[in-house]
Design goal:
Strand 6 and strand 7 form a beta hairpin. Among the domains are: about 110 residues, Lipopolysaccharide (LPS) transport protein A like domain (lipopolysaccharide transport protein A fold), CATH 2.60.450; about 110 residues, no CATH class; about 45 residues, no CATH class. The protein is rod-shaped. The protein is mainly β. Keywords: Signal. InterPro entries: LPS_export_LptA (IPR052037), OstA-like_N (IPR005653).
Length: about 600
């Protein structure tokens, strides 16, 4: 029985010993050296290795090959100092060269300085000093670095981190990506070398030859030159600026789209368009915008506002065309209007208000959909209305109403309506007020006539081939009948009330927009889609974190030992960093307390 217990105890000890042995890290192995030296000057346990004419000194440690012309190996600390033409290789994916390097077999932390070049399959990183933590598989620099990727360009930054497992670079502070087509600047950039995907955080710009982009959070695919931007984003296209909650951009096709709370500003034609979805085709000089559209033609004294379901702006800056579709409403301080659609030629100053043919004449809403204009106290309707503006003075010049022209103004004294109708109406404006009207073909008029004492003389009802009307301060001064067919002035009491309105009379004052807000009157609440956007920025974690410092501290023989080679090139944390991150002193104190206990 005693022998069995002894055998069992021996097996347990062997298992524990084997387990402990398996957990011990392998030491650095010298694979090749032309010359090996040891001397009292080097110190106890320190050997010097030099290359020969055949090849460099070669070390191996857990998948890493280190080559150099000269090296000092500290056996007790399992630590290497490598000099001249240093080359460190990890598998077939990572290659680092430098003038000088250090490597600890215990911490697996490497430090390199002097023309450092880190090469991975998709990019090349160069810097003056670099730390490489093999345990975390991360490389880090903090005194300027440059990454070159063939398809993306060159990226420089003050601080940078490379995560080998995800092939991700994280650049911080003064980040600049230079590409033949554009220059990207930001303070925080996450870049994936395998895919070419870039994530920008904080104020960022992308400047190209013909366009500039600004955002405070965004994504850019450097492989196919497409981007997605949110948070205070805008794109400048020569003379247009597009802003919105969410922007998409394709550099190859010069296409941009925007969603939610968007604004398109045309600096050449002094116009602003607002809506909630837009597409911009730069090469075609066109803009498409929808979802509660408001177009503003900016003028020095009195801007024009136009609401529609959909708006298109096409053509070069010297000859822009604007097309507005469905339920178009116009507001200006002295002019309002409504139509199914509106066509504006900015070069000629012609605005066409159109009644779309998709509505049949039997439609109960057909009358209400006829284009209509209100100028001061005058209401004008017809199948089609043309407004002509002086493009230099930005004032109304004239108007034409084609087919079923109808001009109505309310007589404020009697409560009746002055009415003029005919086939075509031609009006002239002075200082944006209507002063002359000609009614051509089948002209008819009902007019309340007053004397100089503002006493009603009678009601004039006439028919003529052509009628000319002179208007002053919104009051009719004179009516001239040309080729009069019939006409009489009736005393008010002799004129039947049921004859005081022409056939087709439609007073639509309740539809008149009296403010910009009225343009959207009676519209249901607009529900915008939720924009998922991009994940918020996660600050770069400390490279020299608690775990790394614990590994370094464990290389010391006792807590009072300050000669650990593995710790000598770890930078001291700044005063600002010490407030945010775990400092080296705290970690050392923590580990020392563990040893004492």
């Amino acid at each position: 029985m005693l022998k069995i217990k002894q055998v069992f105890l021996l097996l347990v000890l062997l298992c524990v010993s084997a387990s402990t042995f398996g957990q011990e890290k392998k030491r650095i192995t010298i694979k090749y050296s032309g010359f090996a030296l040891s001397s009292p000057e080097l110190g106890e346990g320190v050997r010097e290795f030099r290359r020969d004419n055949q090849q460099q000194v070669h070390f191996i440690h857990e998948g890493v090959n280190l080559y150099c012309d000269k090296a000092l190996y500290y056996e007790k600390e399992d630590f290497i100092e490598a000099f001249s033409n240093v080359n460190m290789q990890q598998g077939d994916t990572i290659n680092m060269t430098a003038k000088y390097a250090e490597y600890s077999g215990k911490t697996q932390l490497a430090f390199a300085s002097g023309d450092v070049v880190l090469t991975e399959p998709k990019s090349v990183l160069t810097t003056d000093t670099l730390w490489f933590d093999r345990t975390k598989q991360q490389a880090y620099y903090k005194s300027m670095g440059k990454v070159v990727r063939d398809t993306s360009g060159t990226i420089t930054s003050t601080i940078g981190r490379y995560y080998l497992e995800t092939q991700k670079y994280q650049f911080v502070d003064n980040v600049v990506l230079v590409n033949p087509e554009y220059v990207l600047k930001t303070n925080h950039l996450d870049f994936y070398s395998e895919t070419g995907h870039s994530y920008m955080y904080g104020p960022s710009t992308i400047k190209g030859e013909n366009n500039n982009i600004y955002c405070e959070r965004g994504f850019y695919n450097t492989n196919n030159d497409t981007g997605y931007f949110i948070k205070n984003s805008k794109i400048d296209y020569d003379n247009r600026t597009i802003e919105g909650d969410s922007l998409y951009f394709n550099r190859n096709t010069s296409f941009a789209s925007a969603s939610n709370n968007i604004t398109v500003t045309d600096t050449i034609n002094k116009s602003i368009i607002k809506g909630h979805y837009a597409e911009v085709f730069k090469d075609k000089d066109s803009v498409f915008i929808t979802k509660r559209v408001l177009a503003i033609s900016v003028q020095d004294k009195d801007s024009i506002y136009m609401r529609s379901d959909t708006l298109m702006v096409t053509g070069p800056e010297e000859h822009r065309i604007t097309r507005a579709y469905y339920d178009v409403r116009i507001y200006k301080s002295d002019l309002s209007g409504k139509a199914d659609s509106v066509h504006v030629d900015h070069k000629s100053g012609l605005t066409q208000m159109i009644n779309l043919r998709r509505f049949s004449t039997s439609d109960v809403f057909a009358t209400a959909r006829k284009p209509i204009l209100w100028n001061i106290g005058n209401q004008m309707t017809g199948d089609t209305i043309h407004l002509i503006s002086n493009v230099e003075t930005e004032k109304l010049d004239s108007l034409r109403v084609f087919n079923n022209a109808f001009l109505i103004s309310k007589d404020t004294l009697s409560g009746g309506f002055n009415q003029i109708k005919g086939q075509t109406l031609i009006g002239l404006f002075r200082d944006n007020e209507l002063y002359n009207v000609d009614i051509i073909k089948n002209a008819e008029v009902i007019y309340y006539s007053y004397n100089s004492e503002n006493e009603l003389v009678g009601i004039n009802k006439s028919m003529s081939a052509l009628i000319n009307i002179q208007i002053t301060d919104n009051d009719i001064d004179e009516i001239r009948m040309i080729k009069q067919v019939d006409g009489l002035l009736y005393p008010e009491e002799d004129f039947p009330k049921n004859a005081r309105l022409f056939r087709g009379f439609d007073w639509r004052e309740e539809e008149k927009p009296n403010s910009v807000e009225d343009l959207f009157k009676d519209e249901p609440p607009l529900v915008l889609p939720v924009i998922k956007g991009l994940d918020p920025y996660i600050p770069q974690e400390e490279f020299f974190d608690e775990a790394l410092l614990e590994r370094v501290e464990a290389t010391k023989k006792d807590k009072d030992d300050t000669t650990s080679k593995a710790a000598r090139n770890i930078p001291k944390p700044s005063e600002e960093d010490s407030k945010k991150e775990v400092t080296q002193e705290k970690v050392i104190s923590k580990i020392s307390n563990k040893k004492d206990n």
